[in-house]
Amino acid sequence: MSGSNSIDHSRSPLGDGPFALGRIEIVKKSIKNDPNFALPRLVVDDRNADINALLKADVELTEKLHAYKELRIIGGLLKEFYVNLELWELESCFYSLRNIHQKLQKNILAGQSRQFKQSVNDSVDHLHFQLIERVRDALDGFWKFGKDSITFRSSFTTESGDNEILYNEISECVKSHLFEDAVLGSNSSCWFVSSIESIATKNVVIQELSAISDKYLKHEQTILFFKKFLFSSDIVLFLEGSCIISERRTRTIDLTLDSFQNLATFLSGIVSAKDADLILQSIGNLLVNEIIKFVRQEAAQLLIVSQQRQRLIDINAAMADLSLNTAVHWCYDRSKLDVLLADEKIIIDLKLDQILHDELLKLRAIFESDNWRLPMLVENRENKCLPESKPEQEQDDDLDDEWAWNDDEAEKDDKDHVKEDVDDGWGEEIALDLEIDPLPKNDAKYFQTKREAHSKNESLMITRMPQGFKQTLINFEKGCDALGRNQISATYHYKLQLLLTSFMAMCMCKYTEWWQLYNDITVVISECSPKINLFRLHELNERFVRTHIENMKITAQQLIFRQLNEFSSEENRPQWEFTKKKLLPFVQESVIPSLLRLVNGGNRLSEFLDFTYNECLIQKVLSWDVISEKNSENIAKLINIIAAGTSVKELRDNPQHEHLRERLVITGKVVNAHLTDIMTMFSDGDFYLFTTDEIIQWIVKLFADTGLRRECIDEIRDVREENRL
């Protein structure tokens, strides 16, 4: 063992023994110190001594390298954008474009030339325009708008046939990236708009976005398409696959039902739920109103014919499903149509409404031509024209509330108005247009040839309108009989009043001569009563003629008041134009001819003249505190002029009117007479039409308080008292 492990020192070049290791160290040290074995020293160049310059150059090179790397990344994003654009991956295109803008915002083009910067910005701006074009192409692939049609498909395949484009994905992508800001404009905060550098490109993009929003997001064109159908009476809708078509046709009940069903199907089963909800926000209520209106108009068939009734039930269910499954912001109340379909009373009322509607349409048709104006003579039965009393039905509280005209209050207001004018004395005048237009010459000639026959109650000139309206009343009554009087007892009177009121309103717009309308209505009442309760029509007719007569009274009153005002201000040399140039022409050419043409016109004319003589003239003069001698002459002259200018031969056989004129003539003599002359007239019995107080009142107004005046007054009282006893 020891022999095998021993060291053979004879093989060592340094010898053997314990001094071998020491010799090795000596050799190493000698080699280290030997200059022949030393390495050559590095030579330092003074030109590279500026370490800061080197570091700066290193930074610049690093930044350029980083910028080139970023530009390389942008180049990759550009390639990625065009690849996605070719593949219709619009969502990826938006992200690529946004990443490009994020890179550019890091100012990586700071060290580049101005031309290079502009070229990059223009290229990126053009990407916006290209992407908008692709968005529009995609939406055009889903929506097709023809002249009279709209087609929608939820997906389409690209021309290469490799990709299927889904509407919901594109729609959500467009809304989230292009319309995150509600404001479209140069100040829009939407990154897609605000990141465009070129003003011209930005404006073009904004215009395109606005067009896309109106057409595809707000669906203005689609809404307008449906509104044309709903507002028109001759457009129907057809559904062919995913295309809804509008066509001008005469609407039948079946075609109208088909149209409503097709519209509901298009919104519920073809377009997306969100789009349907947005469209229904605009047309939903209008659609419901048109359906209800259609049901009311065609109730006679829709609610009776079982097949059409079932179709209406199906449409109601379809609208309810549309509201439940599609609409979020619009709710359909199906109970409105359910009530119409289930309530027999409503069905009867709807039929009555339809009868009323049809007759009103026929009345309007009569006025479309002037044939109704053709004159005809009928027997003047004025004594049979007016109802004797108000029917019992008219006393019903509900009808009074519904049709209360407050005639008594209106008449009271009119009288108070006139009385207030009389009490004004010389106060402020009412502003009226007193330019009186005389009747045309041919009209005056017509009056001269016809009014004598009218006044003698032999015949009456009317138009053809009474015949037309009598037929309307007959048709309305027949329709009510067909429905059953018991079924419509609660609403019959209301509908009749509505028919009468509507007829009167139409006539008031069409007649040029108010007196002719009054006569025509009077003939209708005389020939149709008492078979049909026309009290409301009589009431409207009387109110109508009363309004015209009251206006005449006000005009005459104001003209006389102005003439009396002239006496107050210029009693020595007053002007007479208010009487001679305005009052008399107005009475002679407008009032007298018009009132005499009325049925029972003599009494109305007598009433007007009574108001003119007493209320306007005599009572006004009596309201003065003092009547001067000169004004006594003026008033006497005024009375004589009015009396002469208002003489009507047709009223000469009217005792009441003749007494009225006699009082006026005597008053004209009294105001210009001496006290002794008045007493002579009293002794001769000229004051038989005057009361004692009236005679005394004139004496007090005309003469000073003297002993002679008191004696005359006492004598008048004594004589009248003796005669009374």
Automatic annotation (TrEMBL):
<dbReference type="Pfam" id="PF11989">
    <property type="entry name" value="Dsl1_C"/>
</dbReference>
<dbReference type="InterPro" id="IPR038442">
    <property type="entry name" value="Dsl1_N_sf"/>
</dbReference>
<dbReference type="InterPro" id="IPR021876">
    <property type="entry name" value="Dsl1_C"/>
</dbReference>
<dbReference type="InterPro" id="IPR021875">
    <property type="entry name" value="Dsl1_N_dom"/>
</dbReference>
<dbReference type="InterPro" id="IPR046362">
    <property type="entry name" value="Zw10/DSL1_C_sf"/>
</dbReference>
<feature type="domain" description="Retrograde transport protein Dsl1 C-terminal">
    <location>
        <begin position="534"/>
        <end position="723"/>
    </location>
</feature>
<dbReference type="GO" id="GO:1990423">
    <property type="term" value="C:RZZ complex"/>
</dbReference>
<protein>
    <submittedName>
        <fullName>LAMI_0F02520g1_1</fullName>
    </submittedName>
</protein>
<dbReference type="Pfam" id="PF11988">
    <property type="entry name" value="Dsl1_N"/>
</dbReference>
<dbReference type="GO" id="GO:0007094">
    <property type="term" value="P:mitotic spindle assembly checkpoint signaling"/>
</dbReference>
<dbReference type="GO" id="GO:0005737">
    <property type="term" value="C:cytoplasm"/>
</dbReference>
<feature type="domain" description="Retrograde transport protein Dsl1 N-terminal">
    <location>
        <begin position="25"/>
        <end position="364"/>
    </location>
</feature>
<dbReference type="GO" id="GO:0006888">
    <property type="term" value="P:endoplasmic reticulum to Golgi vesicle-mediated transport"/>
</dbReference>
